[in-house]
Design brief:
The complex is a heterodimer of chains A (299) and B (279). With 299 residues, chain A is mainly alpha-helical. Chain A has 13 helices and no strands. Chain B is flat and about 70 Å long. Chain B has one domain: Orthogonal Bundle (MetI-like fold), CATH 1.10.3720. The chains are: A mainly alpha (299), B mainly alpha (279).
Chain lengths: 299, 279
Amino acid sequence: MTAADHAVRPGAVSKAMVAHAIAPRAGGRPWTFYVLLTVFVLYVLALYGPMICIYILSFQDVRGGLVFPIKGFSLHWFVDLFTQVRTGDVKGSFDRSVKLAAIVTVITVVVSFLAGMAFRRRFRGDGIVFYLMIGSLVAPGLVLSIGVGLLMHFIGVEGRWYTTAVGAQLSWTLPFGVLVMFAVMSRFDRAWEEAAYDLGATRWQAIRLVVIPILAPGIVAVALFGFTLSYDEFARTLQTAGSLNTLPLEIWTITLNVTSPSLYALGTITTIVSFTIIVACLGSIALMQKRRASRVPAY
Amino acid sequence: MGARDRIFGWVYVSPLLLVLVPFFVAPLLVVITASFLESDGFGGLIATPTLGNYVDIFTSLLTFNLYLETIKFTALTWFFSLIIGFWVAYFLVFHVRSPLLGIGFWTSNIIRMISWIPLLGKEGLINMSLIKAGVVHEPLEFLLFSSFSVVVAYVHQLTIFMVVPIFNAMARIDKRVVEAALDAGASRFDIVRLIVLPLSKNGIALGSIFVVSIVMGDFFVIKVMSGGGSASVVGALYEDVGVLQYPSAAASAVLLTIVVTLLVTAILRTVDVRKEIAR
C-alpha cells in the first residue's frame, strides 16, 4: 500500500481480513452473504432494469408503442425527437443544460474546496455558516425558486439560465459539494501540509503542491456530483431560468404532451451523455491513483 | 496562528456565503414577507400587511389533508429506502472487495420515473407475465398511477441517498471491533444490532435528512406517478403560483419550510451530524 493510497482510503482493510471477520467459521461464506447478495442484486435490477427496458423500447420502428412487445427495429423515434415540433427545442435545451452544468460544476468545485479548507478548523461563527448550508440543502426547491423569482421581479432583473439559474442551482449543489469535501478532507493528514510549511512553502504553494494533488480524486468526485445534480435539477430552476428551458424543464413539458417512444429515445440519449461523463471522471480518478502509485515509493 | 487562522476561515467560506445569502437567505426572506401581503389578483402584491393568507391556510381542511398525504408518502419512502439502503450499504462494506459505487444517476429523474410505465402499466411486463402465468385473469390496476407506484418511484430515486451516507459511516467502523465481538462469541445478528447499527447511526440520520427533505419538497413524482390521483403540499403551492396567487403560495411555502425544518431538527437532535462529517 502506498502512502497516497493510505490517504485516500484509511478505512480500507484487506479483503482477507474482512472475510475472516465476517465468516470465520468453516472457511466458506456464511448463508447471510447469499441473502445479502440477493438483496443487492434485486436492488441493482430494480435500479437499472426499468431503464434498460426503455432503452430497448426506444429502438422500435414507427409502429412502436410504450409497452412491450418490441415492434421492429429502427432509429425512427430518435429522428422524431429532433424533428417534431411537439417535442419542443430538445437540442437547444440539451445544449443549455450541459453548459449550465459545466458552469455550476466549476464553481461548485472551487467554492466547496475553499469551504472545506475553512471547516477543517473551528472559527468564530462556523456553526452559523454550517446551518445556513444545511438549510439551503433541505429547503424545498420550489420555495426558493419562488423566492428568487419574486426577488428578481422586485429588483427588476430578468431571469436567465446562465445567471439566476446558476445561483439557484448552486444553492443546491454547494451544500452537497461541501459535505463530500468534508468526507474527503477528514482523511487528509494535516501533518503533510505542515511539513510543507516547515520546508518554507507559502500558503498558496502548500495548497497547490500538497493539498490539491492529494485530494484530487475527491475533488473529481465533487465535480461529478456537481455536474449530475445540476444537469438534473428541476424545482430550483423552474422559476429562475427565464424564457429558455433547460433539459429537465423541457422533458417535463414533453411528458405532458408526448406519449410515444420519443420519450424513451430522449432517455437513451441523456444516459449516453451521463455515462460518458461518469466514465471520464472515474477514469481520471483511476489514472491519478495509478500515476501516484508509480511515483510514491511503496513502504 | 490562532487569529490568522480564524480570519482565513472566513476568507475561505466567503464565496460560499456569496451564494447562500442571495440565493437562500434573501429568497426565504422575500417569501416570508410576501406571505404577509395581499395579492392584487394579477401577480402583483399590495403592501398592506395581513394575516389573511395564514388564516386561509389554517382554516382549510385541504391543508390538513395535503400534509397527511405528503407525510404518508414521506414515511413510506423513508422506511423502505432505509431498509434497502442499510442492507445494500452493509453488503458493499462488509462483503465486497472494492466498493466501486458505479451507481450513478444515469439519466434524468423524470425519465427514470417514466421507465416504470412499460413495467407496471396495464399492458406492462408484470401484468402480462402474471396473466400468462395464470396468477391473475385481469391486469392489476393498482400497479401504475396509484399510491403504490408513487412509493416505488420515490424509493427507486432516493435509496441511493441512503446508501451513500450509510456506506460512508459503515466504512469507518474499525474491523477489529467486529472481530473482537466475534471472538467474544457474538452472533452475526448481535454484531449488526450492537455494533454496526449504533456506529452507522450518523449516516442513517444524514440519509434520512436527504430523503425526508426531498420527498416533502417534491411535486412532480407524485403528479406523474399517481396519475393525478394524489395531491401534495408543493403541488398545491405550484398551482397557486400558476394562477399568480403569490401571497397564498408564499404562506404555504413558509408553513412547509417550518414543517421541514422541524422534521430535520428532530433528526439532527438524535445525532451530531456535524461531528460525523467534519471529524
